[in-house]
Amino acid sequence: MIKKVDHIGIAVTSIQNSLPFYEATLGMKLIGEEEVPSQLVKVAFLDAGNQKIELLEPTSSDSPVAKFIEKRGEGIHHVAYKVENIAARIEELKTQGINMIDHTPRLGAGGAAIAFLHPKSTGGTLTELCEKKGNDVK
Ligand code: CMX
After folding, report:
1. Which protein residue has the closest C-alpha to ligand 1 atom 33?
2. What is the Cα–Cα distance from 57 to 73, expressed in whole angstroms?
3. Of 25, 87, 103, 109, whose CB is crowded by the most CB atoms within 10 A?
4. How far, in Å, CA of 114 to CA of 20, rounded?
């Protein structure tokens, strides 16, 4: 089912304040930044080799990321796995009793089709399926 880890999402209060650690200290290249209005977040993707790091900054206090930071503080928010044929993968997971947050794929950052699995169904880690046409990293 899983092709690879696509990215790790990290909740931050400010992308601008967090970037120097990833760019200057760790030496990662910034791939791009964009706003995802449907998720009430601004994101920045960094190249971590064969995977990416996604910094997530809430744009509203109603954002799931704002609630996460309020409850748990900044830090790892989700792990996203690259899949093919995401709609079929969602159906497979449902038949295995997984509680899907998204029952159909929706549009995520970078034009990817995404769907989240509820952390209560995954042993505590918010998990994302991600399907993107074309090649990895970028
Ligand atoms: N990882 C692990 N557990 C999490 C979590 C996360 N990221 N976010 C919430 N939880 C846990 C909470 O700690 C809480 O656990 P307890 O009941 O044991 O206290 C439980 O899930 C419910 O949390 P809540 O604060 O009451 O929040 P909600 O139920 O309202 O929402 C969730 C939780 C996961 C359903 C919601 O955050 C969601 O739909 N997330 C998917 C969408 C998303 O995160 N979008 C932002 C990223 C978008 C992108 O990458 O493009």
Report:
1. 64
2. 12
3. 109
4. 28
Q: What ipTM score was computed for the predicted complex, to two decimals?
A: 0.97
pLDDT digits (tens, 9 = 90+) for 33-53: 999 998 999 999 999 999 999
For residue 12 the two structure tokens come to 């931050």
78 lines ligand 1 (CB under 6 A): yes
Q: How far is the CA of 27 from the centre of ligand 1 (A)?
A: 30
Q: Residue ranges of the alpha helices (H) in 14-121?
A: 15-20, 64-72, 86-95
- Give me the pLDDT at residue 138, please: 42
Fold of 4-131: 2,3-Dihydroxybiphenyl 1,2-Dioxygenase; domain 1 (3.10.180)
Determine how β-strand 75-82 pairs with β-strand 29-36.
Answer: unpaired
Whether the CB-CB separation of 112 and 132 falls below 8 Å is answered with yes
129's tokens? 């399926």
Q: Is 71 touching ligand 1 by the criterion CB < 6 Å?
A: yes
Q: Could you tell me the maximum CA-CA distance found in the chain, to the nearest angstrom?
A: 45
Measure 24 CA to ligand 1 centroid, in angstroms: 30
